[in-house]
Design brief:
This protein is of the alpha/beta class and about 325 residues long. The chain contains 10 helices and 14 strands.
């Protein structure tokens, strides 16, 4: 098979490309390189620079590389930015997906795997979030992911595609330093950014109904996430058109923000105690995945723990920020 990975030069996409290539799958990447880095891709990977909203380019890639399956990762993904720029998020995430699916249907590509998010759930009040937990997103980013799932499933049913929607929880770590996250939007790089500038890490809210008062989240190593994509792609390859799979991707275990801050301090050697600020709007007290379905359907479970996520992310951070003082 030949898989098109959209956004394949990004942080997550490059890990997926490497995982699939290492397993013997043929991969071509379509990426506009707005945040992606071409050097992240495995040697010999075909890279086409272009936008999903350019139908001519998408058609050319699908036909020219005889694509038989799509892993769609390309999207805007910052929650706060989506609140400030909802029109941009709906245009990039939903219009781009629409153009891609139209091209997929026209080309007769039979398999489509969609990168979704736990943001579709909003702020559920439940011990574990299952795939049946009501999806009530609270920001435009989550809305575009939920609407994207609807569109993918409906297209699969109408045009006989085997489809899958993967709901990521909190992604961290790196398979190797050069593949680490270059953004400072997720909690671990945000902690790194603060402590290496000599500032205390920030905790938003310490009065939640949790054991230490801080939010609890489910973290998944990006290399495990890439392995889940490979498992899902191979599952789709053996299924008839019209089949749909929707699964959470997490570890099924929660870590509090304070526990994570303590671990970052231990790994980095920067031991300034965190400062507590006010709650951020929309933060749930606890968001931990039920991972029973993915284990049952795909035989997949996460292998790496939170310490490995922090240590590998720190190696990548130091690669990009050398000779930072410890204090």
């Amino acid at each position: 098979m030949t898989w098109l990975i959209t956004g394949g030069a990004g942080y997550i996409g490059a890990h997926v490309a490497r995982s699939m290539t290492a397993a013997g799958e043929r991969v071509v990447v379509l990426d506009d390189l707005s945040t992606g880095v071409a050097e992240r891709l495995p040697a010999g990977t075909a890279l086409v620079r272009g936008s999903l909203q350019d139908r001519e380019t998408v058609d050319r890639v699908l036909a020219g590389h005889a694509v038989t399956g799509v892993v769609h990762l390309a999207a805007k993904k910052q929650v706060g930015e989506s609140v400030e720029e909802p029109l941009r998020y709906y245009r990039e995430n939903l219009h781009g997906l629409t153009v891609l699916l139209e091209a997929v249907v026209a080309a007769g590509v039979p398999r489509f795997l969609f990168s979704s998010s736990a943001a579709v759930y909003g702020v559920p009040d439940t011990e574990l979030i299952t795939e049946e937990t009501p999806a009530v997103p609270i920001n435009p980013y989550g809305e575009t992911k939920l609407a994207g799932e609807w569109l993918v499933r409906a297209t699969g049913q109408a045009h006989n595609l085997a489809t899958g929607c993967l709901r990521y929880f909190n992604v961290a770590g790196a398979a190797e330093p050069g593949l680490s996250d270059t953004g400072v939007f997720n909690i671990i790089p945000m902690f790194f950014d603060r402590v290496t500038r000599g500032e205390a890490p920030r905790i938003f809210g310490a009065d939640y109904p949790t054991p230490d008062g801080t939010c609890i989240r489910d973290y998944i190593h990006v290399a495990d996430l890439a392995g889940a994509h490979l498992a899902a792609a191979r599952w789709l390859a053996g299924r008839p058109g019209g089949t749909d799979l929707t699964v959470n991707i997490g570890r099924g275990e929660g870590v509090s923000v304070r526990e994570l801050a303590d671990l970052v301090a231990e790994v980095t050697g920067h031991r300034a105690p965190p400062v507590v600020e006010g709650r951020r709007p929309g933060d749930a007290a606890k968001a931990v995945a039920s991972v029973e379905r993915i284990a049952r359907e795909l035989g997949w479970t996460a292998q790496r723990g939170v310490r490995e996520m922090v240590e590998s992310a720190w190696e990548g951070w130091q690669l990009r920020h050398p000779r930072l003082p410890v204090g």
